[in-house]
Amino acid sequence: MTHPAPTRRDHLSTALRLAADGLPVLPLHKGKVPFANCPVCLYTSCGGRPNMKTPGPCQCPRPCHGWAAATVNPAIIDSPGWATAWRQAEAVAFCPGEAGVTVVDLDHADAITWARRTLPATRTVPTTRGEHWIYRGTMQSANAVRPGVDIKSTMSYARWRGPGTGTTTALPDVVRALVVKKPSPVRPVAVPVPTGGGECPHRSPAYLEHGITMAEQRITGAASGVHATVYRTFLAVLSTHGRCGCLTETHMQRLFAAAQAKGESPRHCTDAWTNARTALGM
Does the predicted model carry a pTM greater than 0.90? Predict the structure, then answer.
């Protein structure tokens, strides 16, 4: 027995019902992708959602800006600005992160087998080729965290495929760990180390060692603005120790290693070091 394809009214009805339950929804175009930006917002000329890289809803009256168009407002969902999109829609999607959940998208049988062996049981929804496992809580979205496994949560969307079965459980650490990037191995970088021309004014090697240790800790403890922190730290070290000749390549590589452990590339380390030397006229 064949079933007729859902109509625009079917998709709209589903979207309104989900929105009433607090699920932010948006229509999906052919290919199950969000609708492109409208002419007013094309190339982010509207300035409201540049590159969709920050959380929050879109302010355009049409379903623009991908996942950011998701809304629970029925006046927007059933508005003239969305009417054309619903006529062309192939499916309804929702933004998991805005709904406070994370979807582990399992794309094939091997991925499902892995999940059943590895992840705590939760609400599951069958898909065309696999399953969605839905957890309560949000995290960073990421694709291909392992073969056949995507994470859809903040700044992402997932196709609505029904309520599924089971009880939604709390997002486990084993899922969060899937998107934690392992630090890249530290690569030594050849850059000039200042050489002094006189007696070291610091007298004691312990003073220099304490300064380098404090600099490493300052970089390691940066919670945000890592690149700026690295530059300011390099600047402070060079201004104190860069002209007397006591600063060696070993000291410099310790600072570079701390910066690379925080995600800085070797090139960024080199640029920050060079810029700091230039700023000090070295």
Answer: no
